[in-house]
Structure of CamS family sex pheromone protein:
Amino acid sequence: MKKLLAAGVMLALVVTLAGCGKLSFSSDATDSSSGTATSKYQTTGTVDSSMYQGVIKNGRYQTSSARGLTITTNTQGSNTYNIKSMESGLKSISMTHFSTSKYDLEEGQLISTATAENWLARQSSSNPDGLNPAKGSGADYQTKRPEYLATLLEQDYMVANGNSLKLGGISIALGMNEYYYYQKKAYGATYSTHIDTPTLNKAGRAMAAKVVARLRKMKGVSNDTPIVVALYKNADQDALVGGTFFSSVTSKSGTQLGDWKTINEQNQVLPVVENEKALNTTVANDFSNFSDQIENFFPTLAGVTAQTHYESGQLTGMNITVNTQFYGQTEIESFTQYVASSAQKYLPSGSKIEITIQSTSGIQAFVARESGEKSFYTHVFGSY
Amino acid sequence: MKKLLAAGVMLALVVTLAGCGKLSFSSDATDSSSGTATSKYQTTGTVDSSMYQGVIKNGRYQTSSARGLTITTNTQGSNTYNIKSMESGLKSISMTHFSTSKYDLEEGQLISTATAENWLARQSSSNPDGLNPAKGSGADYQTKRPEYLATLLEQDYMVANGNSLKLGGISIALGMNEYYYYQKKAYGATYSTHIDTPTLNKAGRAMAAKVVARLRKMKGVSNDTPIVVALYKNADQDALVGGTFFSSVTSKSGTQLGDWKTINEQNQVLPVVENEKALNTTVANDFSNFSDQIENFFPTLAGVTAQTHYESGQLTGMNITVNTQFYGQTEIESFTQYVASSAQKYLPSGSKIEITIQSTSGIQAFVARESGEKSFYTHVFGSY
C-alpha cells in the first residue's frame, strides 16, 4: 500500500462497476480541459449507486496479487461455480460495511501469491503459517484432520485521499470445504469426507483471528482499518451451483474481532432432482410452469434449468439456462420474445432474473430483469 | 395456406419480435376475462414498433416447412454467418414493403422441404424444376455452368383477418454463390470458381421470375399477394462475416416483376488484414483507437475484432468480439465497464453496436447500444 499512498505522480482512473445498467459519463479526465494530467483519479459517473467503482493505475486494471491462485492446494477447486459465487457474495457482504458511494473496489493487493499458498497449505515445520491443520501422526489424518480451508479471497476498499486513493477497508473470504477431497496415494482414486457446519464454523473462526492479526502487521494497514472476514462453504464438486456464506465478523481495530453474525443463504438448482425437496415450493412451481410453457412452444427444446439463490429464506435471484436447437435467426427472435413474455407471466416478481438462451454454438439471446425492475430487457445476438 | 385460412378453431398467439428492448405486455388472451378461447390471436404489445411480431399456432411456434434445409446442395453452406445475415437482411428489406404495424411474420410455410431441394438442385430430366443450370455436355460444367443458387429463404407476412390471420405478402431471398465450391470426384479436394456480380445478377433475375410464377400457383397465394424477391451474395467459406444483398424486385400481381432495385450493402471485418483497404477509414481508425484503449487496460487481452455493416456507404452496425482470459468476476465487471466507457468515447455514434466479451469458457458479459440510443446497456453474466 505504501506505493499507492506515495503515488503523487500516478494517474488513477476509476471506472463504474455497474453489473448492469445504462451508463452515463459524468466526467472525463482525459479531456484536455480538465485538471492536471499527473495526479488525479476520476469516475465515469454511475446510474446504479449500488455498485462499486474499480481502480485503475497507470491506465491498467489492478489485478489481485494472488490472481488465479486464490483457488488452490489440491482438488478442492474443481467446481468453478464456487469461485464466481464467492467473489460476488463477498462484494455483497462488503456493501453493508463499505458504502458504494464512498468506497471504490480494488482487487486484493496485500496478500501475495506466495503468502496465499502458504496460508492455504497445511501447517508444518517448513510452513508455520499454514492455516490448515498439521498432518500429525497416524495415516488417517485426511479424515481426522481434513483441510478445512480451500480458498482465500481478498478485496480492498479504497477511499479518496486528496488526489489519490487510500485503503479504507479490507474484506476477506475464507472458502471452507464442506466436502474434503483427497487421494490416498498420488494419482489414486479421489475420496471425500464430509465436514459438518459447526466444525467448519469453529475452524473458520480460529483462522479468521489469525488472518486479522497477520493483516494488521502488513504495510498500509493501519490499526483501525476495518477488516471484514466472511466464512464461505464451498459446494461439492458435482454441484451445478456454487456454495454460500454462513458467517461473518468485523474487526474494527487491532486484533479484536467483533461478534460473529450468522448469514442465512441457500442455493438450489431447479428442477430439483429426485428425492430432493424444493427450498421453496412456490418458486419451484412457478419455475415449473414457466418451463412447461416454453417447452410446449418450441419443437426442439432440450432443457431448462435454474440456479436459485435465497437470502434469509427469500428468493433474491434466479439464473435460468435454456438449451435448445435453432435453425435460424427468426426462430431465435420469436423464441426470445416468448421466453420474456412467459417469464413476465410465470416467474416470481421482485427478484433478479437472468435467462440465457443457448444452442450448441453458444449463447443466442438473453433476457434479464434487474432487481427492482418490472420489465425484462431482451437481446438477440446478431451477425452480419 | 388453406389450413391457416380455415382455422376457425385455431388458437393463434402472436408474440413480439423485438430484437432488443424493454417488453411491456398490453394484453393477455389467456386471462380468463378475455374473449373466447377457441379462435383468436393476440399481441404481447410492443415498445419497439420497428419489429415484426411472430405467429404461434395451437401454442406452438411455426417453424418453416423447409426448416434447416434452406441451406443445402453441397459445400456451399459452410459459412454459417451467411445464414444469419441473409435472414435478418431479408427481414430488413421486407420492412420497406410490409409495415411492422400491420404485418406479422411467419416462417415460410409455402415451399416445402422437398420443393426447396428440387429448386436448389441442377435442372435435369429427373428434376425439371431445378433452378441451377443443367450439367450439359463436357467435363468442365462446374466452371462453365456453376451452380449459381445455393440457398433459398421464404418469409410469410401475415395480416389480421377477423379472428384469424391471412397471408398478406411473401419475401424470398435467393442466396447466390460468389464462389462456387465443387469436388472433381467424390470426397476429393475442393475447388472453387469465382462468379462475378453481373453474371449472378443475370442468373438471379431469371430465377426470380420462375420463383414468382411458381408461387402464384400455390394454394393460399392470390394473384395480387405482393411477392418480394431479393438476391443475396454468399460470402466465401472462410469469411468471418456473412454476405450482402445486392438486388431486389417486387411482383405486385401475376407473374409480372417490377423494376429491379440495386441494393448497396457492404460488410467488412476489422481490423483489416494486410493488403485489404478499409471501406471507411474513419470507422477503421475509431475501432483501432477503441481496441488500443482496451488492450492497454487489461493484462491478458487476446484480441478484439469487429464485423461492420454498411448500407449505401454509411455504417449501420458493428458487432465486436473481445476475447480475453479472466480469473475472476471482479475483473470481468471492471473490464465490462471499461469497455462500455471506451466504446462511448471512441466508437462511431449513431450506429447500432453490440460488444460481446468472451473467455475460453464462453460469453462473460455484453455491452450494447441500440440504433438511435445514446447510452450503452451492460450486462455481466452471473452465477450463484
Chain A touches chain B through 77 residues (CB under 8 Å). The first strand of chain A starts at residue 12 and ends at 16. The two ends of chain A are 48 Å apart (CA to CA). Chain A has two domains: 62-263, 268-380.
